[in-house]
Amino acid sequence: MSEATILRSIRGAASRRERADRDRRKATEDLREFVRQARAAKVPITKIASEAGLSRQGVYDLLGERPSS
After folding, report:
1. What is the dihedral of CA 49, 55, 60, 64, to 10 degrees?
2. CA pair distance 23, 26, nearest whole angstrom
3. How many CB atoms lie within 10 A of CB 17?
4. DSSP per residue over 3-69, as a string?
5. Global pTM?
6. Which residue ranges in the chain fall short of pLDDT 50?
7. Counting Cβ atoms within 10 Å, is residue 35 exposed (0-12), middle (13-18) or buried (19+)?
8. How far, in Å, CA of 4 to CA of 48, rounded?
9. Taking Cα atoms as reference points, which of 25, 61, 60 lies closest to residue 39?
């Protein structure tokens, strides 16, 4: 593989990675908003966690809350 081809491949991979990072941040923002809506609708944390594929602690972390005792 020539140097030009390798460098073009590196730029392409870096660009895809940047897009993926941006998409991940957006998905996290969307998830946080939907979780907030679910909490406002009194959906139990265990149900939210199950649907989101998170632990209960993960839901609290996403919301920046502490678990209630």
Report:
1. -110
2. 5
3. 10
4. HHHHHHHHHHHHHHHHHHHHHHHHHHHHHHHHHHHHHHTT--HHHHHHHHT--HHHHHHHHT-PPP-
5. 0.81
6. none
7. buried
8. 49
9. 60
